[in-house]
What we know:
Layout: E1 6-10, H1 16-24, E2 27-31, H2 35-52, H3 62-80, E3 83-87, H4 102-109, E4 116-119, H5 120-135, E5 137-138, E6 147-148, H6 161-168, E7 177-181, H7 187-194, E8 199-203, H8 207-219, E9 226-229, E10 239-244, H9 267-276, E11 280-291, H10 293-296, H11 302-311, E12 314-322, H12 337-342, E13 345-352
Parallel strand pairs: 1-2, 2-3, 7-8, 7-10, 8-9, 10-11
Antiparallel strand pairs: 3-4, 5-6, 11-13, 12-13
Helix pairs in contact: 1-2, 4-5
Amino acid sequence: MPPPRRVVVADDSTKAATAYQLACEGTALLWQGDFHNARQLLRAMSRRIDRKSNPVRPDAIAAESFHLHRRARGHRARVLGRLLVLLDDDHSLTLRRAPDVRRACTEAYGPPRGDRAVSLTELLGVIGAHQWRKKGVEVPALGGGVRIHPHYGVFSPVRGEYVDLVARTPLPAHPRTAFDLGTGTGVLAAVLARRGVAHVVATDIGPRALVCARENADRLGLADRIEVTGPALYPEGRADLVVCNPPWLPARPTSTVEQGVYDPDGTMLHGFLHGLAAHLHPGGEGWLILSDLAEHLGLRTRADLLTAITTAGLHVTDRLDTSPHHPRIHDTTDPLHSARAAEVTSLWRLTPD
């Protein structure tokens, strides 16, 4: 974020109404009071935003609802992001009742390099990411109790339906090699290796993801079967199976972690499709894991997807579908509820013409 034009000091005496008004006007508030009171102030500011925000009209079409919702979320992030805290030159937070955030901040930002002002919302995200990294996310497809440990800024496999699709789809005959493109935490590479693929090459364009995937492969005892390389989409050579789970929505991300959700203009999707034939051994196939949420939101049509597949010289040999199970599909207050409730995630089996 660019540095604020104006900064004022805020503490336990600062009223939520005052903080909210200043933040809406573009003024940042540097907190110097109690840590838990800062969190309460953040929640109070958040409630004020929610009361004043009603961005989606009942008669709005799906695409308009999506863009209005994204704009409202962006406004919310900017306003709440103006409540700042100061990290000392060792990443410590010297506020009353503040937790020890040094390790979490080192994981997110790297070694300390002087004082750093960060938004409280970002710091809470850093703390949450550290907890996820420490305890991990259980992945039933890898066996009972097996966990994947996501790093800060790497998309976490909390939605397991796409992992289950890869775990239960029949493999091509005797696959020796597989590519996992955009591996993230390395969860799909691990599933393929556990299913018996002898050599899995996992790629990603994100440095954080590459480190994360290597650590997970080593933790699972699969480092001898999973090769993590990048930054790149495709590695050198060919494989019997190429798996890609690109970001599902063709829109622009506004943060690092959103890169796992939003793919501007479908760049990664089209890169996978147009490079697939040249990277498959004879008789090999590609697996595209993709939600149809973009179709329900009016961001892409099914005809657009099928045309992209055909244009790349590919055809569909099979498709396996599943429905999501996350709690948001039952949240009727969500402006995008109807689209989420209708969502289907599919694994498309593709082969060259």
